[in-house]
Amino acid sequence: MTPRTDTRARILAIAEGHLMRRGYHAFSFADIAQELGIKPAAIHYHFATKPELVCAVIQAYARRFDRWVAAVEGLSAADRLTGYFEVGRLLVSDGRVCPLSMLTAEQDAIPADVVEEVRGLHARILAFYVDSLAQARTVGAASFGGSPEDEGGMVACTLVGAQLLARLHGPDAYVRVMRQQGRALGLPEQWSAFPTSAWSAR
Amino acid sequence: MTPRTDTRARILAIAEGHLMRRGYHAFSFADIAQELGIKPAAIHYHFATKPELVCAVIQAYARRFDRWVAAVEGLSAADRLTGYFEVGRLLVSDGRVCPLSMLTAEQDAIPADVVEEVRGLHARILAFYVDSLAQARTVGAASFGGSPEDEGGMVACTLVGAQLLARLHGPDAYVRVMRQQGRALGLPEQWSAFPTSAWSAR
DNA sequence: CTCCTTACTTACCTGCAAGTAAGTGGAGCG
DNA sequence: CGCTCCACTTACTTGCAGGTAAGTAAGGAG
Fold first, then answer.
1. Residue range B173-184, pLDDT digits in tens
2. How many whole angstroms separate alpha carbon A149 and alpha carbon A129?
3. Is the C-beta of residue B5 closer than 7 Å to nucleic acid chain C?
4. With an 8 Å Cβ cutoff, are A146 and B183 in contact?
5. How large is the average pLDDT for residues B126-148?
6. How long is the CA B7 to C1' C3 vector, in angstroms?
7. DSSP A121-184
8. Is B30 an 8 Å CB contact of chain A?
9. Domains of chain A, each with CATH number or no CATH
10. pTM of the full predicted structure?
11. What is the pLDDT of residues A10-24, one digit of tens each?
């Protein structure tokens, strides 16, 4: 058995899939090892503990989010918002949800350093919402009462809830909810599709 | 040790607390037993398996929800809606979330019959939203675009997300989000407080 | 007073999880 | 050609989970 060179990256990818589909407690090193064709103990060579692995997964996800935000910087605020709603749809269609959505539910049952990582991810996503919503409102592309901070917090909750509840009734439920959220914000009915391709990009 | 007569009810109550605070996988029969001062195996006398226990917890919660809906039947639709938002706050202040919020996240990691129970709870809560929203709009106490079904689905997602994310930043985060949701719906700023007392009632 | 039922306890089993320690085969370098 | 390091495997430990089977103390019914 000749050793591979990309095992660490593969572990991360597989762990991410499990984390976004089933949550922290519902996957084991054995699951990852089996999918990779190696032994469970080999995971420990790359990641000492499970919290360490999961933290790395969340950090990688956060970096991907940052790259996506950078990639859509040139778009209008409304397109950025609807674009992110579409990214969420992409995940849900694949049976996944954002780690933020998944792990907030488990937070009293996962290690503190993982929770801290989730908190960091939430802050990034929230900042994106607040910024985009504020900008969209000033150019008249969106309307809402209260502060962008309050509205951003609400939109974040809606998306988290939509991702989780969609898994009870299928991806269409997510689309209906986020379309309704778009309508409530006065966003255009036509959603920007470009940003989803920017997501998958490495 | 003289046997108690209310052990079954106590198990349900303690299990409910753990389920709403930590989720399905993060509590064990041993936790419940220790809190009750009995041995873990004794739980099996009252509930054969963990899925059976959790199903019973959710059913009891659903019945409580039904009683609450019946208790607030005489209130205006707007008061019923803000009243339920307040019930959610009551839970969050106690470190809890609705089992619906908790278990939707875990649904790929829990037994199918438990998921079915969650689905049933979701249907009840959704029906309450849809009904109240439709009525509130017809009397001019709320305004939103689209169908009451779509709006109800969205409000359900917002509340689920608010309950979960509130645990990252404290109960105030929940209040801010749901106040913003109330504002978006055009509900009165003053929220009905009566319904929370109707919740705790047996 | 005895029997039966209720509500447990004690003792145990199985399975799986994370994690550890020591050993190993091949690739590359000197 | 031999050494060394990387990327594992093998074999193991610990711990806890849900679940089972048999035994038992207390209380009520007859």
1. 999 999 999 999
2. 8
3. yes
4. yes
5. 98
6. 25
7. HHHHHHHHHHHHHHHHHHTTS---SS-HHHHHHHHHHHHHHHHHHHHHH-HHHHHHHHHHHHHH
8. no
9. 59-200 (1.10.357.10)
10. 0.94
11. 999 999 999 999 999
